[in-house]
Every structure is written in structure tokens, then in C-alpha cells.
Amino acid sequence: MESRYHKLQFSIRRPWNLPYFSPAMALLFFLLALTAIFHQGYLRAAKDNNDLYPRESIVSGERVASSVEEKDKTFFVEGEDLPGKSPVNSSAAAPAVSTLLPQRSPSPTLPPAPPAPPSTLSPMPSTSTEASGGYDYTRPVPAADVAVTEEYFADAVFIGDSRTEGLKMFAGPQNATYYTGKGLKVDTVFTKPVVLTASGEKLTVMEALRQKPFKKVYIMLGINELGWVYSELFINKYAEVVEEIKKNAPAAQIYLQSILPVTAERSQRDDIFNNANIRRYNDLIQLMAAEKRLYYLDVAQCMADAEGNLFSDASTDGIHLKKNYCERWFDYLKWHYVPHNNWE
């Protein structure tokens, strides 16, 4: 009797001898191992997924790789068609555009954006013909009765990015001055050395403008800033650019050119460089021109189809212009001008 009692007591103290204990423990360890494996895979997938989204720099107000020239650098090789770069022949083994640019959507992991900075622009001022007694700055420069010749641009400077470089290379007035750079923006006008001097030194656009005054200033900027967090950052910095130019050359005629559209195919597949964003920026540029009594040139109208898209045959990459469309751009400038001091 006592011996049986001790045997029962011993078996109770050693639960691992029970028939169900070993399978249960094995199942538990299996579940723990499976959970660890899936957790590690989830973290790796989450990291890879976050790398697909454009990240924003809150300090600079720009998206990483916000420049259209940076995004499109895979499409060009040295030596043929576009300024500094040329499109790869479409018949060659160039990869399709859609395979080079991943589809993007807003990243759920981005930190909340800071409040938008207050705009330096006031509501539309009263600068109509009746109010100012002369020129109506609220409207684009109308077509003149007679086109000017190329000599008209001898005292002009063109400021812009790679699109303006294309104008210089293919069709623009050869007696004009060009301060341009690939990826140039309204902020890097102050910081990026792009103007080569006779001594071999490189200056920023603003440094070069301080050394040589011009009577006419043509500006086209904005395509590379479409990825900025706030449009107010763009237009406020643009306002600083024109104010600095007016300070250095108060008598100069300043023409703000509208940003040219992109093709429908480019616009539909790109969530940054599309015509909806371009129209929004152009509205801000025209508003600023009206407030600051500058001349607004709606160059986009001679490049757009009925839907407001760049003509499909105007470009090889949907953005940069072919030679015949650069010629059309220059023709527009020759017909749209304001005689100096005509309204002052």
C-alpha cells in the first residue's frame, strides 16, 4: 500500500512523464519559432516597401530627387539632340519609360508635414489698365502688331533650366546671354555655380547678374520645383529672385514665362511632373507678376493642345523640346513683347 502511494506521488511530481506533455511542448516551441520567422520577414518587407516611396525633406522643402533632370538622367546619352544630353534612339534597346520609374503613392510612414509658411503674396492687386493708367499686368502680354527681330534680344538674358538650354542650342537668339543650368531652381539661382566667366571661374546666376546689368530678363523656372512640399515655398522664393533682380537692375523689363506643359502620356503616369501641378504653379506665377508689376508671358499656349497637354510630337521624353518646338517658342517671344517705357 505504501509503495503504491509513493509511486503515485512520484509520478505527479514529474509531469513530463505524462503522455500529453511532450507533444504539447513540441507544438509550443514550433509556434514560437514560426512567429519569430514571420516577424523577421515582416520587418524586412516593411523596410523594402518604404524604399519605394519618395521621401520628403522638411528642412529644404523638397522631395528627394525632386528635379526632373535628376529623374530623367537615365534617358540620355552624350552627343545628339537635347542640351548636354541626347535622347536614346527609340529604335535602340532602351528600356520603356514605365519600367524605369516606379509607380508612387503617398507613403503612410512619412512624418506629418509642418504648417505651410505664410505666403508673401497678397490678394490680386488692382493693377488693371484703368487702375494703373496704363499696362494691365493681370493679363499675359498680348501679341504685337509687328514681330521684333533678333537684334531686340541683344541686351536680354535668359534664366532657366535645361529647357532654356534647349532654346539656346536649337533656336534662341544667339546674341542674347544665357544663365542656365540643368536642374536649376528658384533657390539654387542663389547657390549653384552655373555661369562660366571668361577667367574660367563659375558664378551663381545672381552673382553673374550683379556683374552685368541687362535691359530685358526672361525667366522660366518651376518644372524642377513641382515636387516641393508646399507651393508657397516655391512662389515665395521666386518672389525673392525677382526682387533681387529689380534691386540690381531697376530699369530692366522682367518677363516671367509660364512653365511649359508636359505630354499627356507623361502627365498621366507621373504624380509630380504633371499638367495639373504645372497649371497650379502657373497661376501663382501670374498672380505674382500682377502684384509686382512684371510681364507674364503665357508661352505654354503655343505648345499645348486643346486639353492643355504638350503636343505629343514635341518631345522625346515628354518634357524637353525638339528643335522645331524651340523655334516655335522663339517665334512666340518675337511676337509678344512690351515696348520699353511704353506704359510707364
Number of helices: 11
User: What's the total count of β strands?
Assistant: 11
Rg, rounded, reads 31 Å
Structural class: alpha/beta
Shape: elongated
Q: What CATH first level would be assigned?
A: Alpha Beta
Describe how the helices and strands are arranged.
Blueprint: H1 2-13, H2 21-50, E1 56-57, E2 62-63, H3 68-71, E3 76-77, E4 86-87, H4 97-100, H5 129-132, E5 156-160, H6 162-170, E6 177-180, E7 195-196, E8 202-203, H7 205-211, E9 216-220, H8 231-248, E10 253-257, H9 264-269, H10 275-292, E11 295-297, H11 323-335
Task: Please give a structural write-up.
- The chain is built from 11 helices and 11 strands.
- The chain has helices at 2-13, 21-50, 68-71, 97-100, 129-132, 162-170, 205-211, 231-248, 264-269, 275-292, 323-335; strands spanning 56-57, 62-63, 76-77, 86-87, 156-160, 177-180, 195-196, 202-203, 216-220, 253-257, 295-297.
- Residues 45-65, 73-111 and 122-132 have low confidence and may be disordered.
- It has a 5-stranded parallel beta sheet, with helices on both faces.
- The protein is an alpha/beta fold and 344 residues long.
- It starts with a helix and ends in a 9-residue tail after the last helix.
- Helix 8 (231-248) runs parallel beside helix 10 (275-292).
- The protein has one domain (68-95, 113-118, 129-335): Rossmann fold (3-Layer(aba) Sandwich).
- The relative contact order is 0.13.
